[in-house]
Amino acid sequence: MRKIISFMHISLDGFVAGPNGEMDWIKVDEEMFDYVGKRIAEGDTALYGRVTYQMMENYWPTAGDSPTATRHDIEHSKWYGKVHKVVLLTTMKDEGLANTKVISDNLSDSINEIKQQPGEDVLLFGSPRATHSLIQLNLIDGYWLFVNPIILGQGIPLFVDIKDKIKLKLLTTHQFTSGVTELNYILDRE
């Protein structure tokens, strides 16, 4: 069965964005792009909330075509063009959207149906509100977190309204020269 893995940058104090959605504190560089790119390249499905999907859709389809495109821009743009996209939202239909499925109701049933399909793990990119909804429905199977060396003090937290403990098992860690630390967890269902 496929797993839903939340891929998120996070501050040391647990925020995934500033109070107004700011992400200018996130550290990324070629070392991280190379590391993350290897795992993402294996994926065949990306899951987004509305805001993150619109950001991605406004940039990645043509990012690799720019004369100033980096190797990462070219590679990720190609991947974005071929990956199956699933978007959680209520204000949009998937008519005319290439390789994109919109889920606007029956979230639990729809996500469980995707989990039953053949393929690789589904990466949930960013999308704090979508992540919160999936956590509440116990649909996230793992967290691929990139802890940035900053304390924001306020913002949008990754975890809200958690009613029961969520036990995790650490799979891997990686320290980047930028000071960012990767923590790759899977739910410990034992």
UniProtKB/TrEMBL annotation:
GO terms for molecular function: 5-amino-6-(5-phosphoribosylamino)uracil reductase activity. InterPro entries: DHFR-like_dom_sf (IPR024072), RibDG_C (IPR002734), Riboflavin_Biosynth_HTPR (IPR050765). Residues 2-180 form the Bacterial bifunctional deaminase-reductase C-terminal domain. One of its GO terms (biological process) is riboflavin biosynthetic process. Gene3D superfamilies: Dihydrofolate Reductase, subunit A (3.40.430.10). This is Dihydrofolate reductase.
